[in-house]
Amino acid sequence: MPETERRLEYSAPGKVILFGEHAVVYGRPALAVPVSQVRATAIIEPSPPGSGLTIVAPQIGKYISPATAPGDEPLSFAARLTLERLHVGEPDAVLTISSTIPVAGGLGSGAAVSTALVRALAAFLGFEPGNAWISELVFEVEKIHHGTPSGIDNTVIAYEQPVYFRRGYPVLRLHAGAPFTLLIADTGIRSLTREVVGYVRRAWEAQRAHYEALFDRIGELAERARNAIEAGDIHALGLLMDENHALLAGLGVSSPELDLLVETARAAGALGAKLSGAGRGGNMVALVEEEAAARVMEALKQAGAVNVIRTQVTR
Ligand code: PMV
After folding, report:
1. Going by CA atoms, what residue is nearest to atom 3 of ligand 1?
2. What distance in angstroms lies between residue 47's CA and the mean position of ligand 1's atoms?
3. 17-26 pLDDT, tens per residue?
4. Cα(219) to centroid of ligand 1, in Å?
5. Which domains does the chain have, with CATH numbers?
6. Residue pLDDT, tens place only, 105-122
7. Is there an atom of ligand 1 within 6 Å of 279 CB?
8. 197 lines ligand 1 (CB under 6 A)
9. In Å, how far are 3, 10, 82, 245, 291 from 203, measured between CA atoms?
């Protein structure tokens, strides 16, 4: 397959989990939507013959040659796996990675970087793999970041559409019956998904029946939320988010900072709010009516949110 001698640019969105985090690792359904306001970008350009592939990530000070990088370095692992699966050798090129998605904040930064990188590298080599192919490859990279990922991050990001996700089942697109607005607020506290997921696993091992019952209840909320989204019933959706937050707190993955932002959003008029992603830090998400958005956003900032993103889920 001939190389294109062009500069190519690909990007992938962040994501926010609306329902079902943690329980999704144990086979329950979850809902997630892409957040296109924050993105990871990969630019690939030809380099002199014989120079091989170099990956540069200036924001994190990385300058890597995939051929010699350690096996668990995620960027080079993603590049090597792409070449292996396409049955091609290393091109002479420079891949530059950048991202506006906060790292370790529950917005899918790792999966977005991998998705942009894989798409750019494949395109440079003349391939245009489908979303399922990309998602599955990124899932392999996610294992380095997360240990035992459910697959929801790579799915919602590679498909870049709202999804109803259940491990081992076909990916279902979620169709919103009416558009709705979300505010995503960052506690500023970085939290490693791998550690929080590991904490939940140890707790589940110690008290299986209790945790299985919590996961069942979270899974039921995700099912009801899917119906509410499809029916365009945002008031019902808000209440379900509140219930999901309470169950996540019961799992032990909330934090005082997350609880404060969740309570602040509700007090300022949000229809519902919950932590999003692994928890213990990172982001929370609030559902708001358009007219309340500015007020809730201001209240979140006053309460200490280091950043607030406003996004809309459309029909
Ligand atoms: O922290 P994030 O956004 O990577 O989300 C993790 C979601 C979990 O359900 C906790 C783990 C997973 O792999 O689904």
Report:
1. 106
2. 37
3. 999 999 999 9
4. 15
5. 8-172 (3.30.230.10), 176-313 (3.30.70.890)
6. 789 999 999 999 999 999
7. no
8. yes
9. 50, 40, 36, 18, 41
